[in-house]
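Support request, please re-run this one:
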Amino acid sequence: MSLSKVLETVRGAEVFSLSAGIGIFFNVILVWYVVEYYRDPLHLRRFPAAHPTAGFSAAWTMVHCWKLKRFWGIHKAHERVGPIVRIQPDHVSFNVGEAIEEIYGHGKDLTKAPFYDTLASYQRSMFDTTDRAEHGQKRKYVAHMFAPMTVKNLEDVVVDTTKSLFRVFDRYADMKQPEWLNMRHWISMYAFDIIGDLGFGEKLGCLQRGDDIMKAQTRKGKIYDVSGMRGVYDGGAYNVFWGQASSFLKWTKWMTQWTTGRFFADAFFDVAIYLVKRRVPAEDVAEYEKNRRFDLFQRLVIDKKGKAMDLEFEELFAEAAVLMIAGSDTSGTGLCNTILYLAKHPDKLAKLQAEVDTAISPNTLVAKHDDVKDLPYLRACIDESLRLRPPNAQGLPRTVSKNGAMVQGYYMKPGTVVSVPTYSIHRNEKYFKNAEAFIPERWIDNPDEKEAYNLKKYVIPFSAGSRACIGRNLAYLELQVALASIVHRYSFELKDPHEDVEIFERFNSNPRDFYVKVNYRTPNVPAISS
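Re-run finished. Output below.
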């Protein structure tokens, strides 16, 4: 036999061996999943599964994450199967209002699930730490960042950035040949500019330029430009997708480190590094802060007495990244969705404008928070929008501790993951009449005492309990000031009033682009000062 034939034979054997090895590997995994399913260590076969594969692996939720529709897949599963659904081998979803207190309530012995590992960097932030003691420690120095008085001191930033948004809207309103304005895009630019200035005293300039390009910096000091939106969207989608199989994160993230999703997941963290490096110089921090304008990040650098907090840079990076993402995406999405619903319901918009006009003088450009914070219909419009399109639509997962837990009469063994799907509970007809409809009036003097109670207890756009969103005070200040000022000055006409604007889910859930014509409400609107 010739050497070439010998080599071909050997090569064929190698290929066969490699193929056989791969086949054996995946068959072993499959057998392991099947054995675990029938062994049922968490006693979860008693619950109906969202899909035949959901009891075996995370494949079902990963498919829906790939489509950016995990919340929707779970919502339809609850409609099809019932209020309690097994969505992963170790994860049960409860579309039951009473389960909110049982899972997320204060004093409950459940911790954040390993899913949050996908969001963590070298150092854990208050948001993604799964350790209860560590969370309590971090919350002590993060909480005062968002105290009501702290937030109130930054209202001027919201006012100034809202003026910048109005310059954009005015350009469209002044056009002789009106063009359609992409509301989702411009509100996103607005949200980035607000959190850049509120959080770090940094003028990102997104509204002025019309784009979301930001500076990022690697740990080695390389500075580069990156899209902020793709950092939030593509990076978020990447993290959430692989977070469905949290046990394999070490391997999946290593194998996908060259992908676009991984690049943007890391890049947005690099944006935080750039902001922190600019924000905290090498010289004495406490002395430097004396001459700076106050911003949220200052509360991570010095305490109330002006003494340096001495947090490690990695910890500052971690908290800064959360501040950027949560501070922009949550409030921006909430404002965008509320404008969408009001544009779809001109009667509701007119009712809100009438209320706002009683609180703001015709010559006022941007409202003061004190003038609008107690307007009932303004708050009702925001809350109803947050009910129908919560910025975070998925059920935030919690792990049962070593002591076990009772959820809806079922004993859940240690290690079981449980959640309440926010989107689904908010649209549950058991708790809300005409649950799919935008009805702000339901929030004001509701004669149905049961529904009024449910609105207070089961609408959880900022989650619930001790690990609820710590920045809700800031979010409501932004939403109330911005929305009141916008509807006071403008009216909107949707390009397609009957279009059902689709929701895409990464970690948060965002509307896709939608377009409006911008019109002044009166011919003599107050001018915007430079």
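The chain has two domains: 1-39, 52-520. Residues 1-39 form one domain.
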